[in-house]
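S2.1 Query sequence (CCA-adding enzyme)
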Amino acid sequence: MKIYLVGGAVRDRLLGLPVKDCDWVVVGSSPSAMKAQGFRPVGKDFPVFIHPKTGEEYALARTERKSGHGYAGFTFHTSPDVTLEEDLLRRDLTINAMAETDNGELIDPYHGHEDLQNRILRHVSPAFREDPLRILRTARFAARYAPFGFQIADETTALMKLMVSSGEVNYLVAERVWQETVRALAEPAPVVFFDVLNDCGALSALMPMLLPGFSHDSAIPRTALARSAEKQSDTVSRFVFAALPWADQAPATNAADQLKTFCADLKVPVEYREMAILVANHLPTWLSMTSASPESLLTLLEKTDVFRREARFQQFLSICELLAHTVNANHQQRNWLETAVLACKTVDIQPLVKQGHKGQALAAAIRQERLSAIAAALAS
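Output structure tokens follow.
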């Protein structure tokens, strides 16, 4: 039995990056032998084991054969006679198909180190085309390593285009598309992810609503998403910048409806969907607010539910402010709105209750007090 460090740990060490997770391949062993040494099996479709002390994953060397459509349409074969080279051959990119021995010797049968040095993302073998998820993974790696100057090899781009035109990419389920997309949004250059998908045709097949925003003559979503990455914004904010439908210098008139459909189709989690729709509904008010009347400020505060969800409101403000900068619009609204929030917090409800206000009458009295407080704060 021989054990090798493989994949991302080898790649990132050679790039001089921190190694976060270690994956291991075991050659010359069997499930029963692994269990006898205390490894805990976790894999259902193929044998993967957890080390009894480190908790790291150890997978038996395996080969695979295409048996159906999509990323799950594979039959795996493991046995003690499967070689390390055979295991590495089934991987996606050459930079992920390297291994190290326990004494640090590099094993690189598919020239991943050379591609690493030349900043190339290249598929290992024609079998790449059998798994449509690899299109998304390659785009995500391009988004991760773009700051290092990495480019996708022309032959790999051509293969990705063939996978799209053949219809193989259409077998990806929404959950996996979203999983790769949200991971790509967290990368240093998320715009590159969508550009790669657009260039090979996968964006049209998987997320057609995003096409206008990531056409090469569209600036707003691309610029906002790039700036949010520079500011290290969270993935919820980045999703809004990527997904918000634009018409010229403002969101499309039916932006919220488009987002609802898009999020439902892609199985987008509630937190992401709610923020995108919130911005779609209220960013136009923000962008057109050339004067800060107490009424307009309070109405926006009420519609964005600041009095119950202030943390979400602050996130909304940050998103709108960055978008306002992107379209060179007035961006003093944040100061006005934060002033209005502070003013509203000074309103004491108890005296109004003691005066006998109840129900809708109490709500109306509170609102009037808040309007007066905002007006006084703006005047000062």
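The radius of gyration is 26 Å. DSSP finds 18 helices and 13 strands in the chain.
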